[in-house]
């Protein structure tokens, strides 16, 4: 993939991408809602801006992974806006008890994952978006114990309308609020 670092070796680039994106995330400060597609694009741009010229820009081609076909380019903004309007109407999930919050997070995460608005970096930027959402609800969050395969399996299950694995991830990752 063409990148700003002019690295052609996939394994070298993967390592550089991991390191730079992890450092970039550390510099991104929490912001309160509203959260919307524009906000998500901004997060993506901040995470991957040192790597790709197109960071923060929505993809211009249809994509899929395995049997999972993501939202058509022509529908990204329309479908994402519907989801974010629902999230706004649900007051960005503020005030929910932890079990209800976990259920709603899994539903919204699954719905937004199908949008997959970027060529690369959808998972990392979406997780950061959801970290902000969770923090705004008064909870801490750490996805460190969740492996790549667990995320992938949960996202595939969510694509097939089974959000239980995503709920399990949020159950393990959302920290109880400080009293």
Written overview of the protein:
The protein is mainly α. The protein has one domain (10-175): Fic-like fold (Orthogonal Bundle). It is 55% helix and 4% strand. It is built from seven helices and four strands; from the N terminus they run H-H-E-E-H-H-H-E-H-H-E. It has helices at 10-27, 37-48, 76-89, 98-115, 122-136, 148-159, 164-173, and strands at 64-65, 68-69, 140-141, 174-175. The strands form two sheets. It has a two-stranded antiparallel sheet. The chain has a two-stranded antiparallel ribbon with strand order 3-4. A hairpin with a 2-residue loop joins strand 1 and strand 2 (68-69). The longest helix is centred in the first third of the chain and has 18 residues, at 10-27. The radius of gyration is 16 Å and the shape is globular. The protein starts with 9 loop residues before the first helix and ends with a strand. The model has no long low-confidence stretch (mean pLDDT 96).
Keywords:
179 residues; mainly alpha; Fic-like fold; two-stranded antiparallel sheet; two-stranded antiparallel ribbon; 7 helices; globular; EC 2.7.7.108
């Amino acid at each position: 993939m063409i990148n700003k670092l002019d690295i052609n070796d996939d394994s070298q680039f993967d390592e550089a991408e991991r390191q730079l994106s992890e450092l970039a995330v550390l510099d991104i400060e929490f912001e309160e809602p509203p959260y919307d597609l524009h906000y998500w694009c901004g997060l993506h741009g901040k995470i991957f801006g040192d790597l790709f010229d197109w960071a923060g820009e929505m993809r211009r081609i249809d994509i899929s992974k395995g049997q999972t076909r993501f939202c058509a380019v022509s529908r990204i903004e329309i479908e994402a806006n519907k989801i974010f309007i629902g999230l706004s109407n649900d007051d960005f999930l503020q005030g929910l008890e932890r079990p209800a919050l976990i259920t709603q997070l899994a539903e919204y995460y699954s719905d937004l994952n199908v949008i997959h608005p970027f060529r690369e970096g959808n998972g990392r930027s979406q997780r950061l978006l959801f970290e902000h959402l969770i923090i705004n609800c008064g909870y801490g969050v750490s996805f460190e114990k969740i492996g790549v395969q667990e995320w992938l399996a949960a996202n595939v299950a969510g694509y097939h309308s089974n959000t239980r694995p995503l709920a399990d991830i949020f159950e393990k990752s959302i920290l109880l609020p400080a009293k």
